[in-house]
Amino acid sequence: MKVIIVGAGIGGLSLALSLHAAGISAQVHEAVAELKPLGVGINLLPHAVRELTELGLGPALAELGVETQALAYANRHGQEIWREPRGRHAGYDWPQYSIHRGQLQMMLFEAVRGRLGAAAVRLGQAATSVDPEGGVVTFASGETARGDVVVAADGVHSALRAHLHPHEGPPIWNHRVLWRGVTQDAPFLGGATMIMAGHQDMKFVAYPIDPVLASQGRSLINWIAELRFTDTVEWRREDWNRPGVLADFLPRFETWDFGWLDVPRVIRGAERIFEYPMVDRDPLDRWTFGRLTLLGDAAHPMYPIGSNGASQAVLDARTLAYELATRTSVDAALAAYEAARRPPTSAIVLANRGNGPEQVMQLAEDRAPDGFADVHEVLSRDELETAAETYKKMAGFDREALNSRASLTPPATLG
Length: 415
Prior knowledge:
This protein is of the alpha/beta class. Helix content is 33%, strand content 24%. A hairpin with a 4-residue loop joins β10 and β11.
């Protein structure tokens, strides 16, 4: 069996490694001519870290990422709404990591080249169309590639998804814009905490992503400043990596000095700032067409709420490789993959539109806009715990379920 993977992002590269580990041939085709460690920070949740660890990448992750100890929500005054331990500090068998997306991608890229060979990833190969029944992909160069399975892992602007759904149009913008940057500053809240402050119309997210600096008592803080605009405002919707302008958002955050974190100072300390409109797409009623299926953001682009996008792509990859290795036919494997992954990811897309676990921040804003003396006078412990646990179960990282779940490494490859 040969699998053609279109896209060398986190999902596509994780799939190549998973297929190789299962004894299945894989070839990756990527549109860009050179992979570079672009982007800013992301979080890898324990369910994704488990999968990458079972691929032998645990030590590499530990070198690149900061092991997250806690997650805290606060209101726009810096008052804590909710705090919970994370990863191994919460009893999971695997850690949670805050990590630079580009460094993670390059680590996966080098692992693919090392295990599958330097020719396993072909760069400068922009896909333009696909024959789903024949398993043939055509590239802008005029070249074609044929596989027993074709996997579209080419992101939110997937050319192959567009080929199947030519009238879908651009991603859906929710009138929120994210400005993102990284700033070297003093550690906050112990140096290994991820924080989210504010509410659904105005939010600041921050977490450390450099373990070397952390070991030296400093912090490289990945941060996100988010604002919602009225429905009449138009934005530069298709500029996905546009340099940000401080005047567009900093004035709204000028008073956000919490004592434990000086938000305007952190924003000003970034060497570069990028802006990203917050977009997703409506869930599809099917991913698989003949020998073609979708994976990662090509299948289920979601708002960056709950820190789940990259982790869900890794789960897609491991599940698809497992089904291809253990089912009696390609058709059965693709059907099982879609049955396992499409319903939960569709649910996450819709839940994130409702703010997912971050809904408690909006409830605090609605009920106590001027702040509170005791959060439990505003939100009950049961409300807080239910919001957190409901999302974990839906997204696949309920602690007991994850720790006890069977491995997605095919049985024939164990031992």
